[in-house]
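The protein record filed below.
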Amino acid sequence: MREGSLFNSARRAAPGNARSLGLRMAMELRALLLLSLYFPGLQAQTPLSEERQPEGSNLYFQCPYTAQVNYQRTKAWCRWRDGQCELLVDTTYSTQNATTKRATRGKVTIEDNSTKRIVTITITNLQVKDSGTYSCAYYTNRYEYVLLKTISLIVFKELHKCELDSLSVQCPYSTTVGGTPVYTTDIKAWCRLDQTECNILGRTDGPSTQNHRKAQQGRVLMQDDTRKRTVTITMQKLRAQDTGVYWCVLYTITRLIPILEVKLSVSKKTRRYTAKESGNVTVQCTYSTTDYRAVTKAWCKQSAGNRCNELVNTEWWPSGYLSPPQQGRVTIQDDTSSGVVTITMEELQIKDSGVYWCALYEYPDLSRMVEVTLNISEGTTQTTPAGNSPEPSSNANSFVLLAGVLSVLFLLVLIGSITLWVRRHKQLKRKGTRQAEDIYDKPEDIYDNPEDIAQLDSTDRMESPQDDSKDLKYVTLNFESRLSPEDPLYCNVQPSQAHRKPEDEHVEYATIALKELLTNDKG
């Protein structure tokens, strides 16, 4: 019973004061509904309680109630449609603790804090279709909802664009708008909201087919698909001065009934250049080839009152003429394949300082693409661009980039060289240590008597196959005096060296012959 039409007290007959109270409440709600949804004439009236939220945001709304209201009563949140308030959520089936009841249905949450006597409503991810009139109420023991607070919720689209962009907005409408029936033949309009009125920019009262109506007024195109009940509004070649609040409305003779609100912000592209007297400056401006390939481009200088005086345009370029159009010291060239306009000013003078436009030229209008501020000072040097849009890199920037790359390469080479040197040094050190273990002291340094020296016959030495002096191997032989051929020879060999040699290492052999030293022992 409470899930459908909740607030229709006039139909609930009760004796005495209950009946008069119900009738009075129904009349008050109907009056509130009219106040919150209708905007008489061209003037917008502010409802008693109005909430404005951007699309995608969340709504937090509080409904306080007095001590006379039993805190145990069910609280509800409903939306007004066609004179009745349809239930969205209530606290009948809620999670609760000692002081709080909480319930959620869809993206709507209701919370009743009996200690603070406040009902809090939360709606997440607001959409334009959520715009409307809502009430929070409590349920009485007479099967009625008593109004606590009513608000008008306006969810608006917030759009950010740049100059020369296009704006496209879809404005869906139902069979009734603000309690007024909507027919396929009704006129919808697009207007800009000022302080006291909404100025009409376009209407759907143009030529129509069975399910489609289309009308163009200036830069505004409106198309009404009556089958889908959706109006599509398109604004072309946006300008910075188009920033403002717009309404899609149902248009009647006496009033405008809002369907959709749009908050539009249009920003201009700006750049700054500094150059020296007698030098040159080159400016490049990009545009959409899809929208503006065939449109004439121009270069103009801004004067007082935001008026721009044309200096040169691409319309002066005769068909088949190879050179770009030029007017005095200014040259303009339009690359329609890539969507780039290039303007060159030569032999700059101090008086050339000022604000310029890259613009679209559609007689007699100039539509700004980019605003360029040019400062000229005495002397000669190259131009330095700056701004909020991408620019060709200057020579200074190129030099800094090149220096950075070369510095990185130099560091890499230096680190590599140091690494190789350290590795080579360690290898030489290890090799020198092994050789030092094999080098022997000369016999003259070991023995006192020359006769105790055993010399190796040079003819009995085995050299390496390559006969390379660095491959010679030496062995230290210490002989006792008067060494007899029968005495054994010993060699100190470290086991690790024997096992350390790879199997395929080249092995050298030497034959050692002993020659007896002549002595005078017998005689």
Remarks:
- The two ends are 149 Å apart (CA to CA).
- The chain has five helices and 30 strands.
- The first helix runs from residue 17 to 37.
